[in-house]
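Need residues for this backbone.
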């Protein structure tokens, strides 16, 4: 009788497990699943030991723990840690840990020098006469990033087999912004309660905090703002500082700094000053002391994020001071501790003030004149577009217009305006579109950035994001924050391989689904440059008819301007002139509807319904065709998923399938409601072949969603 050796048996079982129908997954493991690799792939992994020269640190402990977890998951065995370098070692080294890397003769020395504090390289190398797999960096955090990169390469190898990766982040600040409230509700959150259990902190530190740190570090995210931009004074009181410090302690080994959103009027509201005027010495003194107190508890505290004089939030303008006065006062308080202030440019005329003729112009008008007036440790954080996280917006005109001010991009990862976590929309494609836009003044948008912030889609749902596919948006955000020039399709391919399977029968169709999904949403919600047509306050379903809100620029009718004659917002010189805020080249090109990208047509132009589109259709017919295309897109997404059933674990298959089926209905609702409304305005008949909406307009107008999630 023949016996298998233990190792051979394990390998056999693992390869069976990898090919057999996979067990149910709940999505908690995100893209860090480390499922058993196929046998051939396992055999390619030549790791016999793990070597870390020098003393361990909490960060190298995290790297080693991750490598162990990854290797035991993928190959069934975790190699022992060893002190000596031998053949087959996975070697983690910095120049300080391994003098060979610092030696003048080392070819890696120059390469490493170019990678900065956070970069890393992965190489098959010969060190001390041994063949090793090398993860090298200049710092321990670089090693952690390198470890995650190596695990990624191993779990889902890129087409090229040779291990020759070197990578360094292009942006220094790569943050998540949680819009999480202190009662654990999440403003615009569609994934359950906040993961921050403020009540239980600081004593109870949920395992989730560590897993959150792992997931973010795997992408290179290095900062997180714990609380909502619509902030409360209490977050800056001693008990909450202690709670934030406890979170900071968990995140620190993973290279993630904690930041807080500060309410500008905090000292006044806590009754500790008589004013919040940024030029008042008592106010300045209060913030200095507050910063000192925070840094006592959190020595590497990142700094403050501020929403001021926007949507009712207090700010320096309450005292006739400028945004720069306000930001610089806070900046002075954190500067001695090397902290920063991220001051948001999301403003549009405060209540009661003179309303600009176009909300899209407001941020530029307020901030452009302040270029050069901000302290060195202030960054202005600008949303990707000038309105508000719409399914499609042209890039914000402030990018490229503030050469003397470091700017941060603010993307919204949570899908407030793109169907919550029930509709599939891969935002990687949208982020990429903005980042690669040419400002014609200072290169691409990506090139104007000093940092990036993503409004998180994370909650305490088991799968973190509310749906499996929404994990891809967190992933894509993180990878683009590391490299804003990366391609969203490559990122999608990586994510699909890691999250579902490297098997191309699975990964390739998922990539196609991701890549078509965002345009599909644009088609059924806001085609041809339409925007801000969502229902009041919940922002989910269609409500292009809304015209009764107290501010004109809250009403959808303000944005689409549809009437008997035509539709669209004229932002050219004959309209609001918002176009003039862009570089002259762009302004000239977009001044003419014929040379305006079709996808932004109605953003910049008001056109007659019978305007002849490049397709040969009238604008009216084109609009209808787009809605139909959107509905068809959702049906195609569903059909593409259904055929994958045999290759996906039952639980995730079903959870995704239900959402895709529901998305078809949401698309039909958008289509029908929009057509019913715009037809009531245009008075035009539906061309032959176009199906009439299922219900009269009154039906759609009567729909209401009083308990929609995410209103904080
Ligand atoms: C809007 C959201 C609102 C946020 C605001 C902001 O509806 O909940 O507070 O953006 O970014 O889109 O401050």
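Answer:
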């Amino acid at each position: 009788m023949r016996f298998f050796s233990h190792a051979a048996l394990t390998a056999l079982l693992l390869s069976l497990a990898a090919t057999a129908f996979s067990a149910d997954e709940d999505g908690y493991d995100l893209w860090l699943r480390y499922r058993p690799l196929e046998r051939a792939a396992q055999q390619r992994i030549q790791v016999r030991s793990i070597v870390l020269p020098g003393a361990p640190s909490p960060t190298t402990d995290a790297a080693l723990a991750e490598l162990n977890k990854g290797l035991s998951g993928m190959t069934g065995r975790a190699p022992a840690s060893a002190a000596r370098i031998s053949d087959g070692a996975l070697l983690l080294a910095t120049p300080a840990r391994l003098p060979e890397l610092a030696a003048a003769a080392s070819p890696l020395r120059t390469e490493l020098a170019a990678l900065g504090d956070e970069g890393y390289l992965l190489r098959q190398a010969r060190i001390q006469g041994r063949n090793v797999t090398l993860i090298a960096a200049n710092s321990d955090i670089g090693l952690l990033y390198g470890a995650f990169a190596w695990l990624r390469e191993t779990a889902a190898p890129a087409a090229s087999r040779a291990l020759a990766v070197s990578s360094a982040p292009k942006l220094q600040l790569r943050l998540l912004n949680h819009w999480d409230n202190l009662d654990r509700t999440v403003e615009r959150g569609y994934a359950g309660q906040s993961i921050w259990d403020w009540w239980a902190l600081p004593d109870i530190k949920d395992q989730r905090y560590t897993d959150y740190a792992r997931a973010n570090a795997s992408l290179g995210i290095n900062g997180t703002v714990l609380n909502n931009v619509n902030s409360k004074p209490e977050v800056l009181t001693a008990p909450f500082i202690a709670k934030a410090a406890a979170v900071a302690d968990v995140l620190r080994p993973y290279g993630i700094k904690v930041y807080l959103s500060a309410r500008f009027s905090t000292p006044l509201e806590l009754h500790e000053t008589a004013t919040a005027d940024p030029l008042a010495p008592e106010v300045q003194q209060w913030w200095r002391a507050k910063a000192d107190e925070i840094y006592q508890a959190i020595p590497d505290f990142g700094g403050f994020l501020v929403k001021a004089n926007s949507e009712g939030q207090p700010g320096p303008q309450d005292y006739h001071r400028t945004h720069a006065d306000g930001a610089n006062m806070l900046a002075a308080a954190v500067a001695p501790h090397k902290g920063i202030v991220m001051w948001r440019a999301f403003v549009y005329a405060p209540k009661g003030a003179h309303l600009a003729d176009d909300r899209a112009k407001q941020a530029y008008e307020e901030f452009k004149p302040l270029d050069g007036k901000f302290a060195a440790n202030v960054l202005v954080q600008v949303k990707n577009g000038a309105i508000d996280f719409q399914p499609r917006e042209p890039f914000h005109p402030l990018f490229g217009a503030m050469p003397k001010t470091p700017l941060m991009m603010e993307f919204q990862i949570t899908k407030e305006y793109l169907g919550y976590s029930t509709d599939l929309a891969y935002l990687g494609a949208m982020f990429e579109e903005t980042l690669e836009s040419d400002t014609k003044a200072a290169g691409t948008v990506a090139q104007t950035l000093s940092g990036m912030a993503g409004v998180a889609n994370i909650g305490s749902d088991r799968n973190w994001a509310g749906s499996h596919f929404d994990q891809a948006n967190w992933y894509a955000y993180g990878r683009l924050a590391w490299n804003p020039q990366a391609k969203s399709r490559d990122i999608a391919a990586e994510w699909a391989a890691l999250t579902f399977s490297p098997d191309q029968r699975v990964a390739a169709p998922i990539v196609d689904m991701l890549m078509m999904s965002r345009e599909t949403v644009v088609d059924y919600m806001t085609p041809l440059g339409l925007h801000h047509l969502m229902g009041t306050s919940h922002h989910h379903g269609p409500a292009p008819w809304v015209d009764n809100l107290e501010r004109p620029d809250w009403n959808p009718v303000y944005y689409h301007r549809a009437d008997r004659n035509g539709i669209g917002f004229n932002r050219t010189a004959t309209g609001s002139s918002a176009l003039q805020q862009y570089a002259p080249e762009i302004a000239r090109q977009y001044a003419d509807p014929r040379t305006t990208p079709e996808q932004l047509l109605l953003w910049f132009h008001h056109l007659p319904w019978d305007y002849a589109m490049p397709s040969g259709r009238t604008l009216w017919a084109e609009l209808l065709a787009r809605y139909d295309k959107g509905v068809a897109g959702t049906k195609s997404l569903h059909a593409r998923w259904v055929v994958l059933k045999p290759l996906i674990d039952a639980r995730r298959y079903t959870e995704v399938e239900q959402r895709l089926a529901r998305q078809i209905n949401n698309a039909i609702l958008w289509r029908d409601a929009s057509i019913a409304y715009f037809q009531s305005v245009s008075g035009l008949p539906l061309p032959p072949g176009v199906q009439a909406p299922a219900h009269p307009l009154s039906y759609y107008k009567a729909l209401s969603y009083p308990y929609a999630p995410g209103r904080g």
